[in-house]
Specification:
Length: 429
């Protein structure tokens, strides 16, 4: 996953209800979902989904974007900016919707079915308060969530965020264009008509003749064409008659996304934080698929939701998918200012790339990137980039050299410290 660049917001998970697939909150699979979208639809489409980084201790989630720039709330934009952002988001979500349908078509592949349902859920977000724009690109936070008590069903973007109406102020042309009064000269007109008794001769000499005008009440007017006089009015009426019904039609919902009998009433940090305590999350229902839907993409390289365990057998295969998920590096180091023990949290994708986070007790958050490398059937390394903190300070880059100890998903590590190597423990969260 790409390095996160811009922090958008921080909110309590309990503000909304999490939607889920097979009893697991959708947002917990953010790394796998975004990796799939990047692979199938491109980085730009994937960038509309903010990256959630959860603080389990305080039940808070921080949302970051891979786009670097100023964060602007959708509600604060001008009407033209809102329209541009809404249209871009609508187009990108339609791509995700089409990919979801393609995956769900492959009814014999369980992984395709799971990801198809996950992609249905990521298109849902509570409302315009979670809609932001960074560097002219739309970004949504709290995707895969809904308001408490809201009926679980598929919503189009028009139902979540009303489509903005662009301001339309046509400048209607005047019926007459007045010029300075010019004396008429009937003799000139007569001479012209007499000297051009054929159509071709008239065309030949009109360039050098005076302009024929109509005199009305001592002022000369040039009358516009019929379309010039009434065209704007006709266009404006057609816009009202055709445009508004089409807009209302676009606001209808075609099919339910969630089983009406399995509405998620579970609130985050009460019964949704893990699989064992989240049996009541809604199971997403697949929509009916058209017969002419194109063949679903192959998912041989897509990460599974349950990566293999970290042990001697999996390291021997050199499959970096073993690191897919959330891990922690518990160290003996202490923050020089606060005296707190330093704990480093990781979230890796199937390729061993991911994010690094250090959360200090003061609430300060430091962000960086990480990369895992398998050295042998017992040893692996985790390289950490420089971690930049919200308050301006940083942690230097480092490397953890680790060796498994026979316990699944657990390893003993050494870090590079000022006074020499120092001990740390690498374990699954």
């Amino acid at each position: 996953m790409s390095k996160t660049e811009t922090r958008i917001k921080s909110s309590q998970l309990s503000d909304y209800e999490a939607l889920g697939v097979s009893g697991e909150p959708i947002y917990r699979a953010s790394s796998q979902i975004i990796t799939l979208i990047e692979k199938e639809l491109g980085v730009e489409t994937a960038s509309i989904f903010a990256i959630p980084i959860r603080d389990d201790k305080n039940n808070i989630v921080d949302w970051y974007s891979t786009i670097n720039g100023k964060v602007s709330a959708y509600k604060e934009l001008s009407q033209i900016e809102k329209s541009r952002a809404w249209n871009i988001l609508n187009n990108e979500l339609n791509k995700v919707k089409n990919l979801s349908s393609r995956l769900l078509q492959n009814v014999t592949n369980e992984t395709s079915q799971t990801y198809g349902k996950l992609l249905q859920g990521v298109q849902q977000f509570p409302g315009s308060e979670e809609f932001f724009v960074i560097n002219n690109r739309p970004v949504i936070t709290f995707w895969g969530f809904k308001h408490h008590g809201e009926i679980s069903q598929y919503k189009t973007i028009s139902e979540i965020v009303e489509k903005p109406i662009e301001e339309f102020n046509p400048e209607l042309p005047s019926k007459e264009i007045f010029q300075d009064s010019i004396p008429s000269n009937s003799s000139n007109s007569d001479n012209f008509l007499k000297g051009h008794d054929t159509f071709q001769s008239a065309i030949h000499d009109t360039e050098n003749d005076e302009k024929i005008t109509f005199k009305t009440n001592n002022r000369q007017t040039i009358k516009g064409s019929w379309w010039r006089r009434f065209g704007w009015w006709i266009f404006f009426i057609l816009l009202l008659v055709v445009g508004i019904p089409a807009t209302f039609k676009a606001c209808s919902s075609d099919f339910p996304l969630y089983d009406a009998n399995n509405n998620c009433q579970v609130k985050e940090n009460r019964s949704c934080p893990n699989t064992d305590s989240a049996p009541n999350l809604p199971i997403l229902d697949a929509p009916p698929l058209p017969h002419d839907t194109p063949e679903a993409p192959k998912l041989d390289n897509v990460p599974t939701l349950t990566p293999p365990p970290l042990n001697k057998e999996t390291l021997e295969k050199k499959d970096l998918n073993v690191f897919n998920g959330k891990w922690s590096l518990i160290t003996e180091l202490q923050n020089a200012k606060t005296g707190d023990n330093i704990k480093v949290d990781f979230e890796f994708d199937k390729s061993g790339n991911g994010n690094t986070v250090i959360r200090e007790k003061s609430g300060n958050v430091c962000i960086g990137t990480a990369e895992a490398h398998i050295q042998s059937n017992k040893k692996f390394d985790v390289d950490m980039s420089k971690l930049e903190c919200k308050d301006g300070h940083s942690y230097v880059e480092n490397r953890a050299t680790c060796e498994i100890d026979g316990t699944t998903n657990h390893a003993n590590c050494l870090l590079r410290c000022v006074t020499g190597p120092c001990d740390a423990t690498f374990e699954k969260r």
